[in-house]
Amino acid sequence: xxxxDVPWPLIWQATRETLVMxxxxxxxxxxxxxxxxxxxxxxxxxxxxxxxxxHRLLSLIVNVTRSxxxxxxxxxxxxxxxxxxxxxxxxxxxxxxxVIAAAPFFARLTEIALREVDRGVIEAAEAMGTPRLTIIxxxxxxxxxxxxxxxxxxxxxxxxxxxxxxxxxxxxxLGDLAIRYGYQRFQTDVMIVxxxxxxxxxxxxxxxxxxxxxxxxxx
Length: 219
Hints:
mainly alpha, MetI-like fold, 10 helices, about 80% helix, about 0% strand
């Protein structure tokens, strides 16, 4: 195995593409998933926006979307992707399915984090006449922030694996490079390099997320 034969310019380009896909999809998935997760929680039984049928519908959408394997999602949403960004391949073509897959995942993690908030804190805020939107912003989300940060970390790590999978349909990034060079051209050194870079990226995300959780849990 000769690592001097590794096409390093292509490796760095693919790494940048992976980071772009990760950053763009995470920036879209988190706010979308946060809104859906808050609505799923607040419309559930016993909450102050209780709407059983709305809760069931949102939960069904989240569960169905999360149950579809990402590789199938990539193929299934191709028409929608082409309509949204004009292409179903490359970095641009990979972002819509990444968001569609990650947003419901983060929505469920958001709901779990909100359910861990002490009910007494919410009731105390209601008893003082605090508006409900203020309770959501300044009580509910603030109390759940460590769980939300952990959820963002898990979502980001999942997106790293999703970006690699998008290489199957020519989505660009390290996954595409690993398939074209490591698999199709039997260049094991390229495969090893791409795997190592992905592992390092995951480790950086996990370490950063853990540090943020520790920091905000102390406040």
